Amino acid sequence: MNQEFKQPPVALVTGASAGFGLATARKLATRGFRVFGTSRSGAAGAPGVEMLALDVDTDVSVRECTAELLRRAGRLDVVVNNAGRAMLGACEETSADEARALFETNVFGTMRFVSAVLPTLRGQRRGAIVNVGSISGFMGVPFHGVYAASKHALAGYTEALRLEVEVFGVSVSLVEPAAHRTGIQMTRPRAPLAPYDVGRERVAAIIRAQIEGGDSPERVVEAIVRAATSSAPRLRYRVGRKAGVAAWARRWLPEAALAYVMRREFQLPERSHG
Question: Is residue 263 part of a domain?
Answer without folding.
Answer: no
